[in-house]
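protien #1 (seq + structre)
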Amino acid sequence: MLSTLGAAAAAALLLAGPASPTTPARYGDDPPTGKITITVATVNGSGCRPGSAAVAIAPDNTAFTVTYSEYLAQAGGGSRPTDARKNCQIALNVHVPQGFTYAVARADYRGYASLAKGATGLEQANYYFQGQPETARRSHTFGGPSDANWQTSDETDVDALVYAPCGEERYFNINTELRVDAKGADPAATSYMAMDSTDGSINTVYHFAWKQCPARR
């Protein structure tokens, strides 16, 4: 059932088209012009088996995207209890030009929801640098009936931005979760929340805030 719904979600995403693009915002200092590389170090969780998440850098170094290919939670119908909650933790190895450090100022999450009347869905996420405290987990809920793309944004105040330590390499960890609760819906109806895309048109966008590191003496 899960694989069938995954294909159905991908088809729905293609038919609905990508979410409307937002105007890129600049946070902090101007981004570096040098090359930035991001690789997936580890992937763990019931919503993302190894190889099912990909990362890409924006050409102007203002953001990066994460695209999932098998990230879907469902409940109702013939779903198993374990299908109702899916999570994913990704550790990213981020290399930035010397003399710069970064924080994540905003995260835009996108997906597709097919929720029967009485069903609810939830998306929540947080992120943090290796060895530092986790940021507060932010949650967004959705109610049925619904059969459409969804998008949420989590933005951090400038004074609350947490930057990677200058001159150190720390994994950037991203935790996300999808849940579906169909207790209030028709038991025969299957509801799902998806955050995946087979063609890369639906992705999560993380917007950098850049800062120049103090000169070493």
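ok now protien #2
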Amino acid sequence: MTTANSLKTPVDRARLGTLVLLAWTGDPAQGHDTPYLIAYSLGDGTDGPEGVGRAAAAMIEELGLTTGDVLHDRTRAGAFAVQLLVQGGQAVLTMPYMNAQCPAPAEWLAAVEERGSVHFMLPTRAWPEAKPGEPLSEEVLQAFLGDETVLKETAHVLLPVSRLRA
């Protein structure tokens, strides 16, 4: 699922634990078809969920981001350490602490095609209930991502999408 890069950094990757990637969209019937992508920890780092929070906060700072209600627009900025490639129905994320891919739903791919960017989220809180390979109900998604505290402790980035040229 994830691969650690070998960069010299103050972030202790072992404290982050397992990092997972999830792609989804809002409800297009309600006029909300934004493609979202979240990279979150399962909370199984060396210091448990509390250590995940500290390590994720350090990672967010190192990336030059902040948490809260600011949407960092990286669609016009120069080089950024987080890159997203969409190819073959997969979202492939590369960043200093993980390289991961996840299958993307058809509605997510359509929204990405239309917009050319995604709302990328990097929370400081672990999300152990959202295990890879297990079905994720809308209620579980809403309970985590609808929590104001979680949203305030999350970095939000408008991230451009890259594609391979044919």
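The CA atoms of residues 28 and 34 lie 8 Å apart.
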